[in-house]
Write a structure and sequence with these properties.
By secondary structure, the protein is mostly beta strands. Helix content is 0%, strand content 49%.
């Protein structure tokens, strides 16, 4: 079954860190680029980070640059999102998604063809 499954969400205090995982099955992340998005209640889905499959280049949304790091482990077919210095405004459901096109920018949500179910991240002040 072709799917993405996110995990690692939870409740943390402001300033703390959290690492999310995005496990892929039914396809290999060595051939697909992966992005992370988030969506807070009443807000549009926001691109957070993106990693290219070929050279590992990474791209970030302005609101998370310098705090979040996207990485991947091809052997585990998993992509990670390390989130440091978390703020209450980072509270959202976080999703990972795949895109075949080798974008050299942070792709828009409508460019992705497969999404995970999401994991909730809540940052208390």
């Amino acid at each position: 079954q072709v799917q993405l499954v996110e995990s690692g969400g939870g409740l943390v205090q402001a300033g703390q860190s959290l690492t999310l995982s995005c496990g892929a099955s039914g396809f290999t992340i060595q051939s697909w680029n992966i992005g992370w998005f988030r969506q807070a209640p009443g807000k549009a889905r926001e691109g957070v980070a993106y990693i290219k499959s070929d050279d590992g280049s990474t791209y970030y949304g302005n609101s998370v640059k310098g705090r979040f790091t996207i990485s991947k482990n091809n052997a585990k077919n998993t992509v990670y999102l390390q989130m440091n210095s978390l703020k209450p405004e980072d509270t959202a459901v976080y999703y990972c998604a795949r895109i075949y096109y080798d974008a050299t920018y942070l792709p828009n949500p409508n460019e992705y063809d497969l999404w995970g179910q999401g994991t909730q991240v809540t940052v208390s002040s």
